[in-house]
Amino acid sequence: MQFSTDTQGREAAIIELFRATFTASEGEEEGALIGDLVRNLLASTAERDRFVFVTEGDGAIIGGIIFSRLSYAQDHRTVFVLGPVAVATDQQGKGIGQRLLSHGLARLRSAGVDIVLTYGDPTYYEKVGFRPISEADATAPFKLSQPEGWLAQSLTDRSLTPLKGPPRCVDALNDPVFW
How many CB atoms lie within 10 A of CB 81? Predict the structure, then answer.
């Protein structure tokens, strides 16, 4: 399986992967919302504030993950939030998402990222090292509609201690609809 960070000229295919995947699982409205989120993340988020990883199969992008910076005002650690994640509907259940996540997390670790947070299904994300946390450990940018899905992973040899100060996410995620 080949992984790539090259998004240049591939933005439309990446956006379509996320739109189609979320439309299939959550309906057209959610597909459009996530497609727009990905478009905004790719177009308006500085490269230093995001990591995008994709994988291909038969010449098409079949999986994608996006990490974006999440800053805490009184904390020096480098934090990124994972989301969204998509694997083409006809490719799901083959371990593509987990391999892509493992690759992405290893690359972030190499880049000096200290902590990765995500908001999703604990059962799925625990397979790649995430653990449930509370908002006392890391305040979310907006009120979480399902707090049991707030997860974190330390990418260093230090244990996770609470993040300090109010959080600030990238502009594309700065909307309560995503939280």
Answer: 23
How long a stretch of residues is the chain? 179
In whole angstroms, how far apart are CA 156 and each of 8, 104, 176? 30, 15, 30
Neighbours of 45 (CB within 10 A): 19
Query: What token pair was written down for 41?
Result: 């993340």
> Is the entire prediction scored with pTM above 0.85?
yes
The Cα 73–Cα 44 span in angstroms is 22
Print pLDDT tens along the chain (179 aa): 889 999 999 999 999 999 999 999 999 999 999 999 999 999 999 999 999 999 999 889 999 999 999 999 999 999 999 999 999 999 999 999 999 999 999 999 999 999 999 999 999 999 999 999 999 999 999 999 999 999 999 999 999 999 999 999 999 999 999 99
The secondary structure of residue 9, as a DSSP letter, is: T
Provide the pairing of β-strand 115-119 with 79-87.
Answer: parallel
